[in-house]
Each structure stands twice: as C-alpha cells, then as structure tokens.
Amino acid sequence: MNAATKAGAQAPMSWHVVHLADVAATQWRNGGGLTRELASGPAGADWQWRLSVAEVAADGPFSRFEGVTRWFAVLQGAGVVLRVQTAIRHRNPRCHDAPPHRA
User: Fold this and answer.
1) Closest by alpha carbon to 74, among 103, 96, 102, 58?
2) Is residue 22 scored above 90 in pLDDT?
3) Are 91 and 100 in contact (CB under 8 A)?
4) Which of 33, 69, 29 is nearest to 84 (CA)?
5) Which residues contact residue 94 at a Cβ distance below 8 angstroms, ignoring those fewer than 6 apart?
6) Percent composition of the chain: helix, strand, coil (DSSP 3-state, to 5)
7) What are phi and psi of 20, to 5 degrees?
8) Where residue 8 falls among pLDDT bands split at 50, 70, 90?
9) Full strand arrangement of the beta sheet holding 33-41
10) Omega of the bond prior to 42 within 30 degrees of 0, cis?
11) What pLDDT shows up at residue 91?
C-alpha cells in the first residue's frame, strides 16, 4: 500500500482488454435485446457505473434503472428513435453527442 492509498485516495486504475466475443450476452428485462457488460464498478450487483454494448432486437420501452443516468450511442446499424416524454431523438452511428437519459 502506498502513501496515497493510506491517506484515503483510490488505488491507481489498471487496464485490460475486453473482447466483445468473449463476453456472455444477457437478455434485456423487456425481452427486446441483449446486453454484454464490458465493465462496471464497484464490483457486485449494486454498480454505480457500467459500460455495456447492446443489440436491439425489437422496438419497445427502455427498462427502468431508478437513479441511473444513461448515455446512449449507436455503434452501427440504421439508427434508433428514442421517445422521451414529449421529445423524439434520433440516434445513428454518426451521432455521438447523445444526451444523458435518466431511466
């Protein structure tokens, strides 16, 4: 343990490569797609942040994650239309400025 860790600071972050093909897919709660979780923290079911890649298989509502701010970007495909309350937002692979979505 170094001096910074003893003083209450977080330990340095370590990096490792995650290959999408090596990550098991999990079915969405609403049945409309699959998610592959690449990283989350802290470890366990009560994560505070998560990075995942999803495959949208069917139209449908977002599953709710109370208190979670979601950032959404389309990596490939024809795009997605999000209806959030009264607003409609179009997302496609060329749109990387997706606003946060509280779900």
Assistant:
1) 96
2) yes
3) no
4) 69
5) none
6) 5, 30, 60
7) -55, -40
8) low
9) 26-27, 33-41, 49-56
10) yes
11) 66
Residue 94 reports pLDDT greater than 70: no
pLDDT of residue 98: 47
Give the whole-angstrom CA distance, residue 60 versus residue 30.
Answer: 8
Please state the rounded mean pLDDT for residues 35-55: 85
What one-letter code names the amino acid at 75?
Answer: L
**56 and 31 Cβ atoms separated by less than 8 Å:** no
pLDDT of residue 89: 64
Q: Rounded to whole angstroms, how far apart are CA atoms 100 and 19?
A: 26
CB-based contacts of 6, cutoff 8 Å, min separation 6: none
Q: Which residue has the tokens 């330990």?
A: 11
DSSP reduced 3-state for 24: coil
Dist CA 85 CA 15 (whole Å): 38
